[in-house]
Amino acid sequence: MMKIDHHQLLFVPLVLLMIAANFFKVQAQQGPISEAATLRQVASSLQMFVDELPQMPKVFGFSMRHRSPVPAHLTIGMFQKKWKFHRDLPPATVFAYGKSKKTATVPGPTIETLQGVPTYVTWQNHLPQRHILPWDPTVPTAIPNNGGVPAVVHLHGGVHEPQSDGSAFAWFTSNFNETGPAWSKPTYTYPNVQHSGNLWYHDHALGLTRANLLAGLIGAYVIRDPKLDAKLNLPSGPEFDRHLFVFDRSFATDGSLYMNHTGNNPSIHPQWQPEYYGDAIVVNGKAWPFLKVQRRKYRFRIINASNARYFRFSLSNRLAFVQVGSDSSYLPSPVRTQNIFLSPSEIADVVIDFSISTTNEAILTNDAPYPYPIGSPVDDLCGNIMKFVIEPGSPSQPDRSKIPATLVKYQPARTAGAAKRRYIVMHEYSSNAGTPTHLYINGKRLEDPATETPKSGTTEVWEVINLTPDNHPLHLHLAMFQAVKVQELVNLDAFKACMTTKNDAVACNVKAHATGKLVKIPENERTWKNAVKIEPGYKTTIVVKFNLVETGAPYPFDATAQPGFVYHCHILDHEDNAMIRPLMLVK
Ligand SMILES: *[C@@H]1O[C@H](CO)[C@@H](O)[C@H](O)[C@H]1NC(C)=O
Ligand SMILES: *[C@@H]1O[C@H](CO)[C@@H](O)[C@H](O)[C@H]1NC(C)=O
Ligand SMILES: *[C@@H]1O[C@H](CO)[C@@H](O)[C@H](O)[C@H]1NC(C)=O
Ligand SMILES: [Cu+2]
Q1: Average pLDDT in the 426-433 region?
Q2: Which end of the chain is more exposed for a tag (fewer CB within 10 A), N or C?
Q3: pLDDT tens column, 2-36
Q4: Ligand 2 probe mutation, 256, 260, 435, most atoms within 8 A of CB
């Protein structure tokens, strides 16, 4: 029989007591550990590069009949479930898209479609009675009478009718128990008439976009053109053509997703904060994952799905990215670069050739300050994204993919012959304490009547003037656009003062102010895009096409129907409060 030493029995609790006493002494000296420090501790306790990069499940927006593709009808639900963001984090409660609760993922399934073959999706809301994250009833918000989480899906970059656009006012709760004023039908039509490329779907409910995306309601959508794919011969197939869905999140000690419950101006907005920044970087639903790659070319479609963080990516072993596309369009020819710079919601379509790597691993890093461009430098946590583990030896199959010398030429972006020139001015408002309270475009609310009413089928020039201190990614629904000129505003304070009283860029003589230095538009952004970064203190001239960018043909559906479209800043915290305006096309 084992003899129990009574001294030992006493010893253990005594040591625990001493540790506890010491702990409380430290606490008393330093005060309670701040919430921010706790969140950082959780993130920094996670070992990087231990989870394998997941591939999200694929669902097909077409089916084959007698060897020809025919439209498919998909049903995709939103579910509350548990999701493990890291090997060492307890599972978090998330909202996830999927065909069933069991198969739902964060991000949701990748929807694969074919150009010219419509896809029908019935989006179903199975979310619970209460939100898992805080939200703010004082910003314009969908508030159902009987509880539930309002949700509605927007296909970002999609060219489709207004009734299928996911208007912020077309939200619905579980079982369609309650619907917003613009709700008209449960099944959306995506005609896939546009050029092939990278899109993504995400929630767009009024005032809840930041919280619903943070909770996990995002997913990728691809339109493929098999003829073009065969001609370009870029790396292809599920193993070599992949999505990297990148976002930042903070986690509490119990593994749950963290969002601040207290606003920066709580007497005005009890919860709203101007920008969400997380301490951990998550790719395809895992914090700092790794991916084993062969020594060959890979295509990565990198989607920035952060609420507010900009990314400037590079590879630790100095391998170059060859960028072939931006947002939903190809570039005219590939652009070789060491850095890829992405604002929220922007997409970079890149090829990395690991066959020429001199190392056996490469870390994808980020060095964009936050907020961009005037904020703090990125720390060692958000400075790392993921790791590529490059396998030694030759690839399992010879790499027959290519990076062609030229890619795709769409219609050129011309200011000449534009049907209309508009001025779009970004404003930020502050409390007496000098902290942001809200942001508006053209000094107007979303609820104010539409002032941007372009004629469907035409091309317009928009002069976008940023009077705030931050860079804002401008996003238009339906229309593709590209920046053609970026010029600094001189005597900015005088111009701002005039705009504050007159709110009219022409009356405030914007021409006389937009005479400062010109900024060169990076080569990898010179294509049709659905988000463009707008520099603070600059006027950015964009050409906006309210027609198909491949041919200039008018939309093959009625783009002028109710409830219309919107355009907004894609920093989600700004969009919700309320850097968003209607975009109502007319005949
Ligand atoms: C919606 O209605 C169904 C059936 O009446 C009910 O079971 C469910 O709890 C309701 N959900 C919400 C969010 O109101
Ligand atoms: C949450 O917001 C409040 C108010 O702005 C701030 O004092 C606090 O530090 C924030 N918490 C974190 C973890 O950032
Ligand atoms: C990523 O997307 C978010 C939200 O759309 C945006 O605020 C942020 O600036 C983007 N970051 C990059 C690097 O694109
Ligand atoms: Cu913004």
Answers
A1: 90
A2: N
A3: 333 444 444 434 444 444 444 443 344 445 678 88
A4: 260
- Ligand 1 lined by 175 (C-beta under 6 Å): yes
- Contacts made by residues 126-130, CB under 8 angstroms, sequence distance 24+: 126/77, 126/78, 126/79, 126/80, 126/101, 126/174, 127/78, 127/79, 127/80, 127/95, 127/151, 127/173, 127/174, 128/80, 128/174, 129/174
Q: Which residue has the tokens 């296909």?
A: 155
Distance 92 CA to ligand 4 centre (A): 28
Whether ligand 3 lies within 6 angstroms of the CB of 538 is answered as no
Q: Give me the CATH topology for the region 420-583.
A: Immunoglobulin-like (2.60.40)
pLDDT greater than 90 at residue 479: yes
Q: What is the CATH number of domain 241-390?
A: 2.60.40.420
Residue ranges around ligand 2 (CB below 6 Å): 35-36, 39, 260, 262, 264
Domain 58-224 and domain 241-390, same fold? Reply is yes
The response to whether residue 309 sits with its C-beta less than 6 Å from ligand 3 reads yes
* Residue 153 CA to ligand 1 centre (angstroms): 20
| Percent of the chain's residues with pLDDT above 70 | 93
* pLDDT for 167: 94
Listed by start position, the domains of the chain span: 58-224, 241-390, 420-583
Q: Is the CB of 136 under 6 A from ligand 3?
A: no
Q: Could you tell which of 199, 203, 309 is best to mutate to test the pocket of ligand 3, judged by most ligand atoms within 8 Å of the CB?
A: 309
Tokens of 115: 């150009």
Q: Which ligand sits nearest to residue 126's alpha carbon?
A: 1
Question: How confident is the model over 306-314, as a mean pLDDT?
Answer: 82
Q: Is 176 in the pocket of ligand 1 (CB under 6 A)?
A: no
User: pLDDT by residue (tens digit) across 252-304?
Assistant: 999 999 998 888 888 888 887 877 788 999 999 999 999 999 999 999 999 98
Alpha-carbon Rg for the chain in angstroms: 25
DSSP letters, 408-465, are -------STT-SEEEEEEEEEEE-TTS-EEEEEETTB-TTSPP-B-PBTT-EEEEEEE
CA of 36 to the centre of ligand 2 (A): 7
How far apart are the CA of 308 and the centre of ligand 4, in A? 8
pLDDT digits (tens, 9 = 90+) for 50-82: 999 999 999 999 999 999 999 999 999 999 999
Query: Where does 58-224 sit in CATH, by number?
Result: 2.60.40.420
Mean pLDDT of 122-148: 93
Query: Residue 312: what pLDDT?
Result: 87
